[in-house]
Amino acid sequence: MAVGAFAIGKCGAYGEAYDYPAANVARATALKQCRGACTALTMRRACAALAIDLKNPCGAHGYAVEPRISSSLNEATRKCYQFGGKECVIRAWACDAKG
Hints:
It is a single chain. With 99 residues, the chain is of the alpha+beta class. The chain has one domain. 25% of the residues lie in helices and 39% in strands. The protein has helices at 23-33, 69-82; strands spanning 3-8, 14-20, 39-43, 47-53, 61-66, 88-95. The strands form two sheets. Strands 2-1-3 form a three-stranded antiparallel β-sheet, covered by helices on one side. Strands 5-4-6 form a three-stranded antiparallel β-sheet. A hairpin with a 5-residue loop joins strand 1 and strand 2 (14-20). The longest helix has 14 residues, at 69-82.
């Protein structure tokens, strides 16, 4: 089964990997693309999204992993506002093969 990963860092940094045969390879690939200290989330039959505050990219942000792209986009945006964002926008998103 295909596995993906989405890495998130400070100031809108991110990395993505999808359709890899193993979770550890997907995570390593996503982390390699992400600049700075990043955290990687695994996606299996899911989508991930990252929202940042357009006025302050290094400030509030939100991310989510959900079964559908629309759900992940909405949840990431909601979390960005919840954490104090004033003008939250989607910075990046990715889905694995079945997301």
